[in-house]
Write a structure and sequence with these properties.
This protein is of the alpha/beta class and about 220 residues long. About 35% of the residues lie in helices and about 15% in strands. It has a 7-stranded mixed sheet, sandwiched between helices. The chain is globular, with a radius of gyration of 16 Å.
Length: about 220
């Protein structure tokens, strides 16, 4: 990881520069690329030998600069940033055949909209927002029905953005596999009475990602 202060960075990188696989990872709506969730996932994957590049959408970079909260950018802006980051990774020498994209919640959903178009090797969703909490009729699954890119979605079993019972009824493409994080919420945090802790669940998700990549 870079030693520069986080507020001066456009991206953060974990793992060996000559790794066989590179995963570009985008943050969720409410926290940036250096959130505990993003940092722990990137560290675990990087220590296992993957190269992980984290970046921020324009609205989050502005929050970092100004300290003032603002809502996420509109979809075209988010997708433009995603495409730009992919282009930069490829221009820097990343092998397109060994490139995966994905992210936490919003970041993963945006990645799913361009995965087929960009021809990446795989897609990783960490807590996919299948619908807004309490609004199961407002599905965000249209692009998931015909998705061709091999995809892994890690989902907490208590995630209000999509529970196991709800997701079982969705028409998802056969390219998509699910890894259930036991008693996890949208950030994979379990309840104390579950006997599990957050670090265990984050490690479980990282192991699921590594297992998925091994099949590509």
């Amino acid at each position: 990881m870079s030693d520069n202060p986080a507020d001066e960075l456009d991206s953060l990188t974990d793992g060996p520069p000559d790794a066989h696989w590179t995963l570009v990872l985008a943050h969720g709506a409410g926290q940036g690329m250096d959130s505990p969730f993003m940092a722990q996932m990137a560290s675990a994957l990087g220590q296992a030998g993957m190269r992980v590049i984290r970046f921020e959408f324009p609205y989050m970079a502005e929050i970092r600069r100004t300290g003032r909260r603002k809502p996420p950018d509109r979809e075209p802006v988010l997708l433009e940033r995603w495409n730009r980051v992919i282009d930069q990774a490829l221009a820097a020498g990343t092998d397109a055949r060994r490139l995966l994209i994905g992210g936490k919640s919003l970041g993963g959903r945006m990645a799913s909209l361009i995965a087929d178009e960009r021809g990446v090797a795989g897609l990783v969703g960490l807590g996919y927002p299948f619908h807004p909490p309490g609004k199961p009729d407002r599905l965000r699954t249209e692009q998931l029905r015909g998705l061709r890119t091999p995809t892994l979605i890690c989902q907490g079993t208590r995630d209000p953005f999509g529970t196991p019972d709800e997701i079982a009824g969705y028409a998802l493409a056969p390219s998509i596999r699910l890894a259930w994080i036991e008693d996890g919420d949208h950030s994979f945090k379990p309840r104390r009475q579950s006997g599990r802790n957050w670090e265990q669940n984050l490690d479980q998700a990282a192991e699921a990602v590594l297992g998925f990549v091994a099949t590509l």
